[in-house]
Structure prediction request, 647 residues.
Amino acid sequence: MRVLAPGDAVVLADGVWRDFEMVFVGEGTAAQPITLRAQTPGKVVISGKSNLRIGGRHLVVSGLTFKDGFSPSSEVIAFRQDGKALAFDSRVTDTVIDGFNKPDRGAEDYWVGLYGQNNRFDHNHLQGKLNKGVTLAVVLNSAESQQNHHRIDHNYFGPRPPLGSNGGETIRVGTSPFSRAQSLTVVEDNYFEGCSGEVEIVSNKSGGNIYRRNVFVRSQGALVLRHGDGNLVEDNVFLGGGLAHTGGVRVINAGQTVRDNYFQGLRGDGFTAALVLMNGVPNSPLNRYDQVLDARIEKNVFVDVNAVLFGAGADQERTLAPARSMLSRNVFLGSGDKAVFKAMAPVDGLTFAGNVIDGVAPLAGAPGFEARVIGRETLPDGRIYPDAAAREALGLKAPVKLLTREETGVAWYPKGDQTVAFDSGRILKVRPGRDQLSAAAAKAGAGDIIELAAGDYAQGQVVEVSQPLTFRAGTGAEPLVTFDHTPLFNLVGQGALKLQGLRLSGAKAQDAIGNAVIRVSPGYPPSNYAVELVDTEVSHLGGQAFAVLMGEKSTFADHVTISGSRFADISGAVLDLAGETGGSAYTGPRQSTSPEAYSRAWADPCSTFSEAGRTRAPSAPASGSRTRRFATSRRASRRCDWTAFRS
Prediction:
């Protein structure tokens, strides 16, 4: 191992460094740090089984890209060499981690683990985490890592799809066993876009932390003060864009301050409401809920939000309502006197003073809400805000400057969801014949459309789908697809499938247990799948429980949408997701029974279906069920329009 001295630089040559486990240790100085950097930022790719461990003082890492691989250890980047040799006064900047997921989405790791003290993680780009584990964790498991004064700033946290279970946080500061400790971490000027891994986007589990000037865009979850006292949340912007389950701030524990934040277009309810004050547990153990005490919620602006909850989670265990806390000078803008306030427990321990509402109904039985007309203006960035005259009258400061995506992350890597949309590629025309679909799929690119002319198509091979593809009927055609064995389509890795205007018949398929027209299999790189059936007919699925769509263990749907389609003579289920027993294949909106171990409550995607000329609502699933089979009787024919079957 080379010994590095203050001022030394290690430069990685441009290219792909595969199966590269780096240990970067040394003792630099503030004036002469030791650096590890890319020859050209963006042109040094760390792939395969690779990771980086940092130990020592005044170390700087920059310009790396972790892609097309996964860490063989518990972290991709660890601010420690091992349990004893931690990093201090060190920095990781201008670095990308994109889709660096373990093959098993249930295998847990951190992408970034912050240990030691006075470290900085800034101007980095992290997106696409699909396996279990926090994207970035501040770990307080030793005295040397507490009161750490870490700074996490100007990072771009890009899309993280729903994990389907607890363990999908984007940032966590502390853990329950060390939640009484002070972390003193500052999380500021970061951009969170599509961070929907679980109900807690940011999970605060320690004391004395500051969250300020961060922007949350279309992220399904909330900034949660889960444990720890005396934290500050200020000048953050939460933009839901009308997306379901988008939330704001949830308050637990003592001495929390939430001030000067902006909330717009949030559609979350329950634990993902725009503002939540939870009920606590008497003599709470470390992993449960301390009572909300001495909270200060002031000068926040709420525009077009779905819900604000007081005493959330109240039950036979969580019996302590928030107390000794004040909500003052907050502004709530809506339309038509919308009822957004919900009290799940007594609110006599809360003081409401100087709150102003316009277009929002006041909290029933609580003083401290004044209804008045508030002048509004639309800012250049699209936010609706009280105008200058209203701000002066209400004592509000000017709106905080909205941090842009371009001010965060790295300049040389594309931001945002890189998922290829259906129907965005070429049109490949095919003629009737045997194995035409599999041959076309092998030649197609992501987003391509395989268009079938009129006639019969017989498949003796499985059509492997590892990217978004559409199979559709040509104009005026009603092509018939038969297949000898199953599945007809196998989705793996990043596969997504859209079928439009086709007729699919399983009359020639062999009779076997586990038959399915479409099977979703886990693969690498892992990805949430999507299936759309439009004006498609599926029939003659006889034998032993022949399903239309079957998801295997460790698969998870981004969405399944079925519209204008007919299913006839089917022995099994239209949607069979019972193979997933761990929760990851289960979709539907979040259920607010437990924020850290929530399940996804069932919302039946088939709002109505017709049978024998009658329309009725589908029955509810059995109590406690994790998945639901859409059973169809053989000889029955049903036409279903199922929309937004989505996590």
